[in-house]
Write a structure and sequence with these properties.
18 helices
Length: 458
């Protein structure tokens, strides 16, 4: 869990430090976004391969190696003397995360048997994953306010060292799956996933009609189609397509993409609103997310008791409905909105909904996986998280920009808030779509369940 917190923190902790990074290393406005994109592209592009590599080479070995690489890359990033050095370190962080992330989740699945132990472990994992973004905003604000932007890189060093040492000493190596690397599948998965993630990144920066955006998306379609064709014909694929024949798992993967995309609308827009419109300092903006984070962690402690009683379907429906309601509430804010009167309640709703919904979705994905496929399955789950985040940012930033330009108020803050409201409304609609999907699914008893609601629902 320590490693997952480190990986998730890295997705947002750098955001707060971007202005100081730009000044210190003389980034241009056009290149600054690549401090985030270099990590996202490497992480998202290599996740499927990283998951399967853990199945073949040993998950503990891949996990420890990935954490070490991530930690070393973070230290190098803290020492960066120019933009090139920092971007290279960020890409190396992404590679390390792609090695460690899928194996970490697979180790949870193979260590904890289905039932209450796995539910508790997955509840904690998803709580860390969901709340890590807001923790990153808070920690990033504190470090940049009281110290230097370099601390947002150095903070990973002690965390990574503890995680690597603890894993090497406490975890048993998983049995290796007998098989050879699917080289054509590996190449097409890396290039295809990388093209898809880059397409969303470029769309958010240059628009959907941009020639590069279109060309990259076409390349992604061709490469991923080739990947599917290859995977259906090899004996030991990078990603076994049979995992998607289970309708519960396939729909849960799709729900995960959509829900992450919807949630990114809040984590992307609200820090900007608080700093640009409400004139909060970075640290105060981070502190504003504490009620959300505390609620999410608190609720996650009750999920192991709620799941056996109600099953995943009602929890997913209620949780996503709360998220949709919170985003719609936030879409109504104005330049005169205060924190207590306009933000606190939807933040609490958002934390409550995230705490309720994410664990059941993750369990629907991971339950029933054979040990030999746990790395591949977890790799795709985390790839869905990256794709959902990139897709959410690309779509919602486009909508936000278009709406903001359509508001011709002389006050820039009013225009910004108008665009933010439109973007959050769309995010609310995406979360509501996940809620409606969950309501159309039928219960599916878990294998070996003796009584009560099954821990896996369709």
């Amino acid at each position: 869990m320590t490693c997952q917190l480190m990986l998730v923190l890295d997705a947002t902790i750098v955001n707060i430090a971007l202005p100081k990074i730009q000044t210190s290393l003389k980034f241009t406005d056009a290149n600054l976004s690549w401090v985030l994109n270099a990590y996202t592209l490497a992480f998202g592009g290599l996740l499927l391969l990283g998951g399967r590599a853990g199945d073949i080479l040993g998950r503990r070995r891949m996990f420890v190696s990935g954490v070490i690489l991530f930690t070393v890359a973070s230290f190098i990033g803290g020492l960066a003397v120019d933009s090139t050095m920092l971007l290279a370190s960020r890409a190396l962080q992404g590679v390390g995360a792609a090695m460690a992330g899928p194996s970490m989740l697979a180790l949870i699945i193979t260590t904890f048997p289905e039932g209450a132990p796995r539910v508790k472990a997955m509840s904690l994992f998803t709580a860390v994953s969901s709340a890590g973004g807001s923790v990153g905003l808070l920690l990033g604000g504190m470090l940049t306010t009281w110290g230097s932007w370099r601390l947002v890189m150095y903070i990973n060093v002690p965390i990574g060292a503890v995680a690597a040492i603890a894993a090497a000493r406490l975890l048993n190596e998983s049995p290796r799956v007998q098989g050879r690397f699917d080289i054509p599948g590996a190449i097409t998965s890396v290039t295809g996933m990388g093209s898809l993630v880059y397409g969303f990144i470029n769309a958010s920066e240059h628009g959907w009609s941009n020639g590069v955006t279109i060309g990259v998306f076409v390349a992604a379609v061709v490469l991923l189609t080739s990947f599917v064709f290859i995977e259906s014909r090899v004996d030991f694929p990078v990603f076994p397509l049979r995992l998607l024949r289970d309708s519960t798992r396939a729909r849960s993967y799709g729900s995960y993409v959509l829900l992450v995309g919807a949630m990114f609308s809040m984590f992307f827009f609200m820090p900007q609103f608080m700093q640009e419109v409400l004139q909060y300092s970075p640290m105060r903006a981070g502190l504003a997310f504490l009620p959300l984070t505390a609620t999410l962690f608190t609720v996650s402690r009750f999920i192991p008791k709620l799941l056996p009683r109600f099953g995943p379907r009602p929890l997913i429906a209620v949780g996503t409905a709360l998220i949709a309601g919170a985003l719609f509430w936030l879409s109504q804010i104005s330049v005169h909105t205060g924190f207590v009167t306009g933000l606190l309640v939807p933040f609490l709703m958002f934390g409550l909904g995230g705490g309720i919904a994410f664990s059941p979705i993750a369990l629907n994905i991971m339950n029933g996986l054979a040990p030999r496929d746990s790395g591949a399955g977890s790799g795709l789950m985390q790839a869905c998280q990256q794709i959902g985040g990139a897709l959410g940012i690309a779509v919602l930033v486009t909508i936000f920009t278009s709406s903001m330009k359509g508001s011709h108020n002389p006050n820039p803050a009013v225009n910004f808030t108008h665009g933010l409201g439109t973007g959050l409304t769309v995010g609310s609609g995406i979360a509501l779509a996940v809620c409606l999907i969950s309501l159309t699914l039928k219960p599916k008893p878990a294998a070996g369940a003796s009584s009560g609601p099954a821990p896996v629902l369709e």
